Amino acid sequence: MEKKSIIEILYILEKEMNIKFPSLYVRFLSEEVQDKEPYELITEKEEYIYIYNIYDIQERNDVYSIQNIEPNYFLIGQDGDIGYFIYVKKNNESDNIYSLDLGALGSLEMNKEATDIYHLGKYIE
């Protein structure tokens, strides 16, 4: 899938959901992940994170009702029960990556994992 098409899909999602994706996430998804299935990163702690592609991001957020529970966060990946999120509040979006057990959404504070998606882990081919 072309970078331009992915950016257009993200723009439509932003309008529909009244959110704003951080610029580094947009670049990462449109240039690195695209429509790859699967796209996995390994962290320094040797944890494997599945990063959702352009076709999966909205569906995964809908399945877990993320915006109903944490309206300013957007689920971008997962490692088992642990979700990985970006902050998407309009005019206040952040490149930081956060994590939280998906069963604890809305009851615990998010944990900061990285300053941006490029520092979360290395791609596994």
Overview of the structural elements:
There is one protein chain. The protein has helices at residues 3-17, 23-33, 57-63, 66-69; strands at 40-42, 48-51, 73-79, 82-87, 94-101, 111-114, 122-124. It is an alpha+beta fold and 125 residues long. The chain has a single domain (3-124), classed as SMI1/KNR4-like (3-Layer(aba) Sandwich), CATH 3.40.1580.10. The protein has a seven-stranded antiparallel β-sheet with strand order 6-5-4-3-2-1-7, sandwiched between helices. The protein is globular. The model has no long low-confidence stretch (mean pLDDT 97). InterPro entries: Knr4/Smi1-like_dom, Knr4/Smi1-like_sf. This is Knr4/Smi1-like domain-containing protein. Residues 13-100 form the Knr4/Smi1-like domain.
CATH structural architecture: 3-Layer(aba) Sandwich
Task: Measure the end-to-end span.
Answer: 18 Å
CATH class: Alpha Beta
> Stretches where pLDDT falls below 50 for ≥5 residues?
none
Placed side by side, the strands forming the largest sheet appear as 6-5-4-3-2-1-7
Q: Tell the overall outline.
A: globular
- CATH topology grouping: SMI1/KNR4-like
Protein name: Knr4/Smi1-like domain-containing protein
Domain Knr4/Smi1-like: 13-100
Organism: Snodgrassella alvi
